[in-house]
Structures are given as C-alpha cells and as structure tokens.
C-alpha cells in the first residue's frame, strides 16, 4: 500500500539566492511557528516588551513573500505490503 503526501521545500530567498529552511506539509503553519521562534529570540534587537517588537510589522516577522516554495515528490511505502 502506498501513501501519498503533499510536501513542500521552503527556501529563504534573497538577492537571487535560495537558502533551504525546511520541508513541511503546511507552509502557513510553518511560517507562523518560524515567526514565533524569531520573535522569541528577538531577532530584531528589541526587547520582547518594546512596543516596536510587539507590532507585527517588526522585522522579526517575515512574510510569505520572503520564501520560495517548491513541491516535493515523495512516495512512501509501508513496511508491510498487502
């Protein structure tokens, strides 16, 4: 029995270059978690309680446009064939 899944490779894109970030089955969820982690690390240089940091316009929050998404073709076979 074969199992099919939609998976996507996520690349951060800048200056025509792509930097691999992750493989996921849900880009929107991945982006939310990615931004939460960046915000908790204060990637912008602000402290968590600074008003600039609390604003979703803070540079800690990357938009979907910052990434290139590519389909992954994968076929998984179960260990037991029926």
Q: How do the SSEs run, as a string of H and E?
A: EEEHHEE
Count of distinct structural domains: 1
| Helix proportion | 10-25%
How many runs of DSSP E, i.e. beta strands? 5
Content-based structural category: alpha+beta
The average pLDDT is 81
| Low-pLDDT windows of residues | none
Give, in spatial order, the strands making up the sheet with the most strands: 3-2-4
Largest sheet: 3 strands, antiparallel
Shape: elongated
Radius of gyration: 17 Å
Question: What count of helical segments does DSSP give?
Answer: 2
The fraction of residues assigned to DSSP E strands is: 25-35%
The first-to-last residue Cα distance is: 6 Å
Would you mind describing this structure in some detail?
- This protein is an alpha+beta fold and 82 residues long.
- It has one domain.
- The chain contains two helices and five strands.
- The strands form two sheets. It has a three-stranded antiparallel β-sheet with strand order 3-2-4, with no helix packed on it. The protein has a two-stranded antiparallel sheet with strand order 1-5.
- Strand 2 and strand 3 form a beta hairpin.
- The mean pLDDT is 81.
Which terms would index this structure?
alpha+beta; elongated; 3-stranded antiparallel β-sheet; 82 residues; 22% helix
What is the topology?
Elements: E1 2-4, E2 7-14, E3 17-24, H1 27-40, H2 51-54, E4 67-72, E5 75-77
Antiparallel strand pairs: 1-5, 2-3, 2-4
Short précis:
The protein has 82 residues and is an alpha+beta fold. The chain has two helices and five strands, in the order βββααββ.
